[in-house]
Amino acid sequence: MESGNISCGIAIPQSFDDLSSAAGFLSRYLPRAEALGYEGGWVQEQIVSDAPILEPVTLITYAAALTSKLRLGTSVLITVIRNPVQLAKSLASLDQLSNGRIIVGVGVGGPHIPEAVFGVASERRGLSFVEGLQVMKALWTQPRASMSGEFWRFADVAMEPKPAQKPHPPLWFGARDAVALRRAARLGDGWMGAGSSSSADFIKQAELLRRCLDEERRDPDKFTISKRVYLAIDNDRARAERRLRDWFGTRYKLADMASRVSIWGNRAECIDKLGELVRAGAKHLLLNPVFDEMEHMELLASDVIPKF
């Protein structure tokens, strides 16, 4: 869905109180998101959790079968805990099956990622992250790929099929600090501000990112700046905040984060707060209601997004 020069995606629900209802709900939700004109459906990664959260690549593969135009994005895959050869194959296959609709959001992760559980080292995480992306790009673009790095070394490796999108699916980076934002400007096709960052954080990060793009001599018109936004529309502000806090407490064990990073209130208040992000340079918004998802999706499409 576009409003002016702003496009808006919608989060795909990944956690269900009753998982037996998930397939049926998604079979209604995703086609409706496409019919309403949303740019894409987006998922995030949380593999280890006591909450029943569906795995992201599996979920957008399912979403691809239920839609024909909706783009399918990850925000973000923590690629340092994944094998880049296997991930390259999975994503290339999905890009073919979806007729070139995926956007690959990637990130390094933070101290909350239990690398040892996945059998990978926590040292030199940034280098491992960059090398893993190089492996994926090589396999996606070279008839016979070679890699000579510190973590990955191979020669003359063929992988087919290549992705439908050329030279490869867009890579959007999740990043917060200066080092990661510079990396995004150097290597990425876009950047998505984290949902766990406040609007004020996003404004500062977007300003720094634009300076990094200038330093890298990147065309800003060919680089997407985005923001995941947790939000709740409700004339009863206290109720909206309480429900956000309940969700954050269950999902992240941090109820206070909801009050720090989310947008909530009536339509006018949410429109104004989303407008701050657009004025700060966001070209894309990933709207992420965390309860009453179907109702929020309809309301955002009819009453909020057109006001941008």
Order of secondary-structure elements: EEHEHEEHEHEEEHEHEHHEHEH
Beta fraction of the residues?
15-25%
Overall radius of gyration: 19 Å
Q: Could you tell me the number of beta strands? A: 13
> Gap between N and C termini, in Å?
12 Å
Taking pLDDT < 50 over at least 5 consecutive residues as the criterion, the unreliable ranges are none
Determine the structural class based on helices, strands and strand pairing: alpha/beta
**Order of strands, widest sheet:** 2-3-4-6-9-10-11-13
How would a crystallographer describe the biggest sheet?
Answer: 8 strands, parallel, barrel
Helix % is 40-55%
Total number of helical segments?
10
Looking at the structure, what is the overall shape?
A: globular
Features of this protein?
308 residues; alpha/beta; eight-stranded parallel β-barrel; two-stranded antiparallel ribbon; 19% strand; globular
Explain how this protein is built:
This protein has 308 residues and is an alpha/beta fold. It is built from ten helices and 13 strands. The protein has helices at 22-36, 56-66, 84-97, 125-141, 178-187, 199-215, 237-251, 255-261, 267-279, 293-304, and strands at 2-3, 6-11, 40-43, 71-74, 77-78, 102-107, 145-148, 153-157, 171-174, 190-193, 224-233, 263-265, 284-289. The strands form two sheets. Strands 2-3-4-6-9-10-11-13 form an eight-stranded parallel barrel, surrounded by eight helices. Strands 7-8 form a two-stranded antiparallel sheet. α2 runs parallel beside α3 and α5 (178-187) crosses α6 (199-215). The longest helix is centred in the middle third of the chain and has 17 residues, at 125-141.
